[in-house]
Sequence to fold (226 residues):
Amino acid sequence: MTRLTDMLRSSGWGRNLTPSEFDRVARDAQEVTVPAGGYVARNGEPAEHWLGILHGLAKMSVTSPEGRTSTLTGARTGAWFGEGSLLKKELRRYDVIAIRDTRVALVPAASFEWLRATSLPFNHYLQNLLNARLGLFIGLLEYDRLLGPDARVARCVASLFNPDLYPEPGPYVDLLQAEVGLLSGVSRQRANVALQRLQQAGLIRIENRGLTVLDLGGLRRFAGGG
Fold:
């Protein structure tokens, strides 16, 4: 089982810190376990930590006053998020809900701000992260308005293989078909149909527990991402 310090050290930002910088962050960071269905973060709550997925899977979603929920994206092992609320010193603007039991790394806001003030590599990492997230959400807005269920599922799977959002993603992702449906905003049955079609097209291979991406470029083209 991955330890918190190992996850911090192997992250895209942690491995570029000086030893003294890393020691301070590792000393301040904490770990919590959120059960499936529980909240990693809640809309409207103060942003007190920068958040990372140590192990597990979560979804970011928003809910209208009428109770309609829309999933924005997923966050799997290795993802860091929540920096926008920290940078703007505002309340969280979306919910983050664990899809399965999930271990979460918490870097306090004070440590986050200290790194921003002292570490140039950390600021470069944040720039790349924010740029990648901006591209993700621009695509999300475009695709969800224009694409059918098959392409939405393809977009969902492809988005989990962005190296700027997830460190060194391999071709395999531990992702159940029901979880694909939750992240794509379609039913489990409809997600299964879409995954079967993607497999028939030679883009993915459905495993006993997860998916192997065989053609990431083809998957992105199928999703309309160029």
The chain has nine helices and eleven strands. The CA atoms of residues 69 and 128 lie 29 Å apart. The chain has a mean pLDDT of 88. The longest strand covers residues 69-76.
